[in-house]
Structure formats: C-alpha cells, structure tokens
Known about the structure:
Blueprint: H1 4-15, H2 18-35, H3 47-74, H4 77-82, H5 89-117, H6 126-150, H7 153-172, H8 181-187, H9 191-205, H10 213-239
Helix pairs in contact: 1-5, 2-3, 2-5, 3-5, 3-6, 3-7, 3-9, 5-6, 5-10, 6-9, 6-10, 9-10
Amino acid sequence: MRSAELVKRNLKELLRDPLSLGLTIGLPVVMLLILQGLDGVDEFFSPTMLAPGIALFGFVMLMFSSAMILSKDRETALFARLLTTPLRSRDFVAAYSLPFLAVAVVQGVIVFAVAGLLGLESEGSIGLVLLVLLIMAIFFIGLGMILGSLLKVAPLSGAYSAVLLLTIFSGTWFNLDSIGGPIQTVENLLPFTHALEAARDVLTDGAGVSAIATDLYWVLGYTLVAMVLAGMTFQSRMLE
Length: 240
C-alpha cells in the first residue's frame, strides 16, 4: 500500500499524545458508568440502551482528533511535501482514516465489554451491532477529514460542538420521541438516529439485517457520501 508510511506516521502522532488518546477512549466509559447509575430512574439508562449512544459519543471525539491532525498538517510544510509525492487523494484518505478506524474499533469493543459487565443484554447479534457502529465510525472519520481539509485549527472546536449536539439530540441518552417537533424531524434526516435505532433493535428485539435494512441504508448512504466528499475535498486541496 503506497500510503503505508503515512499511515504509520499518523498512528505515531496519535500515540505521541497518550493523554488525549486515553481521554478519547476512557471518557465514553466514564459516561457509561455515570449514566447507567440512573437505570432505576428510567430504563433508557440501562447499559443495553446506553451502549450504542455512548459509542457514538466516543466517535465524535475521534472525529475531532482526526480533523485536528489533518488541519495542523495543512498549516505546516509537511503537507506541501506530501503533495509532491505520487500519492493520490484516495491514498491520503486511507492514510488519515485507518489509524483512527483502529482506535474506533478499540473504543467500541471496550464500551460494549464494560456494558456487558454492567448487565448489557442482547437478543440479537452483537456482531451486527458492532458492524452498524463501525460504519458510523467510518462516517465520523470521513467527516473529520472534510472538516480538517476545510478549516483551520481554531474553528474546529465550533464544528465539533455542533456535531456533538446533533449526536446527543439524536437520542443517545434519552428517548427522541419525548422531544418530538422540529428537532426530531431534523434528526430523522441524519444518520445518528438511524444508527441508534438499528443497534437498539438488534439488542432489544433480536432484529436481523432485513429488519434494520432501512436504517442501515441511511447509515451506509451517509458514510459513502462522507468518504467521497473527503476524497474530493482533499483533491481540491492538492490542486490549490
């Protein structure tokens, strides 16, 4: 793979900041431990209902990290040197995606392992749940690449906050039906709610692929668009 060296370099950049990496992986677990303590108040705070939303929360943090690394690289001479190499836009997309995808897998496994210790119950395939969330992780990483290609470091925190709010209001920690109105309408047009509903239907009802097909199509569609746009955005930067 032509981008192998750049993949290694970006992985090293992740590992050079163990505090940030530990926070990215550890904070979702802390949130799970805190929120599941409210299980007696509302069944929505059970580990089974919380785990998918907590995983998405972790992926938003990962999106921010990927955007930050790319944005910082754009502001240094490194990016200019990279553009003189024979790498294509898809090689850059792979190089800035794969290290974060590996972290996303670790995040998801740890969240569900802890949720399992706290009493998570699944009527369906955990593997299918993790597949849905993995596709969403790719979406978030693609979104991070788009933001990192377009924005400088300073405005990224605002973009991160906006995506975080959209993810939270998709029903990560509460029932979206209880809000209703324009918020629910908007969220139903975005992939976050569809990913959560698909994962929870598998966990609570034992749904298979056919039963969650509609939600899965939404998630896949948004992910494909995000990755294509990431490549196009990177390509436009290469031509500047």
